[in-house]
Amino acid sequence: MAKVEIYTTQFCPFCVRAKSLLTQKGVAFEEIDVGGDPELRERMVERAGGRRTVPEIFINGRIIGGYDELKALDDARQLDRLLAQPG
């Protein structure tokens, strides 16, 4: 199973949607709340290539993007393949 990391904030509706989609698929993920930690948020921005919005989702260390990109991968039937790769 892939290693999934999701950077979030507490009151982010797109974060909730992304976590819900991953949970429906039975995927374990590490949630990293950057809401109250400017240093952690800056680390997220660096890893995400300058993207400042949440969620930022990584699968096996590779940036996927936010909820819209995650959902697009699922709609294109590509997400399950990524999640099946060993982490």
Blueprint of the fold:
Layout: E1 4-8, H1 13-24, E2 30-33, H2 38-47, E3 56-59, E4 62-65, H3 67-75, H4 79-84
Task: Describe what this molecule looks like in 3D.
The protein has helices spanning 13-24, 38-47, 67-75, 79-84; strands at residues 4-8, 30-33, 56-59, 62-65. The protein has 87 residues and is α+β, with helices and mostly antiparallel strands. Strands 2-1-3-4 form a 4-stranded mixed sheet, sandwiched between helices. Strand 1, helix 1 and strand 2 form a beta-alpha-beta unit. Helix 1 (13-24) packs parallel to helix 3. The relative contact order is 0.25. The mean pLDDT is 96.
How would you summarize what this structure contains?
The protein is an alpha+beta fold and 87 residues long. The protein has helices at 13-24, 38-47, 67-75, 79-84, and strands spanning 4-8, 30-33, 56-59, 62-65. It has four helices and four strands; from the N terminus they run βαβαββαα.
